[in-house]
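Morning F.,

Quick status update on the modeling queue. The single chain you submitted on Monday has been processed. Sequence for confirmation:
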Amino acid sequence: MGHSRRTTGFWHPALFYRGEAQFLDGCLPFVRDGVLAGDPVAVAVPGARLALLQKALRAEIGRDADRVRFLDMGRAGRNPAWIIPGVLRDFADRHPHERVRIIGEPIWHGRSELEYPACAQHEALINMAFTGRDVAILCPYDADGLDGRALADAARTHPVLLDHDAEWDSDDYAPEAVVDGYNRPLPPAPADAPNLPFDWDAFERCRAFALDRAAAAGLSDERGRDAELAVSELVANSIVHGGGTGVLAAWREQDLAVFEVRDSGHIADPLAGRRPADPLTPGGRGILLVNRMADLVRVHTTAAGTTVRIFFAR
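Structure tokens below.
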């Protein structure tokens, strides 16, 4: 595959592949050439393809493959909102003065309808998060396993597209439209879902409520404490930034414990919670912590108010 690839500046292509051979043809040269050039390289793809690429890379360059950071995106990127701060920025920021190469595959066959809008928004937000950085982020898309919507959205969230035969500029590139388009009202909470209106005086009751509902949903003690911490951060954020009051609700949804916080605030910054915390700046860690703790975060925000829904797997 003889594609021209930018060697400086921000480069964020989608790679459409069909089958393992095309996956390797598209990804292996990107990784191998980076290693041989001395660039820091990371690969974050789902487990089976991760093992495939590791094996092929070791066959080509031997022990030099150990210089690559390999991550199972199925675990590291389970929550799409955590991928930018916890996977991409976490690696790129360790090498601020070098050309960084990353393969990231956040959308794969098996991602649920519940997860997909957050995945598409994540891909769009990469462009805002890395503008001006000397970073190449190659995003593989399984053209056999994914539906037409995912492939069409890839063309809207990536300025450059690749397949086995060619490279071309995307005529449909419109990342802001994808972020806005998936900022949709969430499905209604169950009518019988317990809820707790809150203000600052009810903060401790919210923590107790979260622990109680986590246990009722079957979360382990450890995950229950994670849920309590995430809910506490959302409630505090509502009190400080969302008008001083809100409503906390909780319920079970299949094998997930769900917590929802509604308030009258508006999250105007699309990258809120997706920037690594600056150790020299107080605050700004609430939504970031929520993104780290939860298995999935869905947000609907307008000038009239914000709903944040967080999910924890049992």
